[in-house]
Amino acid sequence: VTFDNLTHIPQPTLPDIAPLMAALSTLDGQVMSLQEQLNVTQDAVRNHEAEVAQTTNQLRSGVRRVSDRMDNTIADVARSRESLSWTELIQLMEDVQN
Questions:
Q1: Which residues of 22-60 are buried (b: 16+ CB within 10 A; e: fewer)?
Q2: CA 91 to CA 98: how far, in whole Å?
Q3: Predicted local distance difference test score (pLDDT) of residue 21
Q4: CA gap 98, 95 in Å, rounded
Q5: Alpha-carbon span 88 to 81, nearest angstrom
Q6: Does 84 have pLDDT greater than 80?
Q7: pLDDT at position 1 over 70
Q8: What is the C-alpha separation between 31 and 23, in angstroms, rounded?
Q9: How many beta carbons lie within 10 A of that of residue 94, not counting itself?
Q10: DSSP conformation class of 11
Q11: Cα–Cα distance between 20 and 14 in angstroms, integer?
Q12: What is the pTM of this model?
């Protein structure tokens, strides 16, 4: 094997660089556009998640208030019934005494 063997190896044909550079530029622009779309979408998802979390917390708070009001109403009804029962019992005792 000699250096002369290297000179007889044909050079490969290379494609024209200009169309490759144009394609690369086009792809780069498309990638940038897609990245911007992805960023906008991610921002929208984050905002949506924040709104969902806020609404969920408001709903929890509202349900808690309704539950507390129901508990208070039930307790008030129980006290009213108890009071009414005592009133009826006192009236019955007065009726018996008379």
A1: eeeeeeeeeeeeeeeeeeeeeeeeeeeeeeeeeeeeeee
A2: 11
A3: 96
A4: 5
A5: 10
A6: no
A7: no
A8: 12
A9: 9
A10: P
A11: 11
A12: 0.57
Q: Which of 55, 75, 74 is nearest to 63 (CA)?
A: 55
- Cα–Cα distance, 82 to 76 (Å, whole number): 10
The length of the chain is: 98
**Cα–Cα dist 77/63, whole Å:** 21
- Top pLDDT among 74 and 5 is at 74
- Report CA-CA distances (Å) from 88 to 36, 40, 74, 76, 97: 77, 71, 21, 18, 14
Please tell me what DSSP assigns to residue 7: H
Tokens representing residue 53 in the block: 């979390």
Structure tokens at 93: 């005792």
H/E element holding 61?
helix 17-97
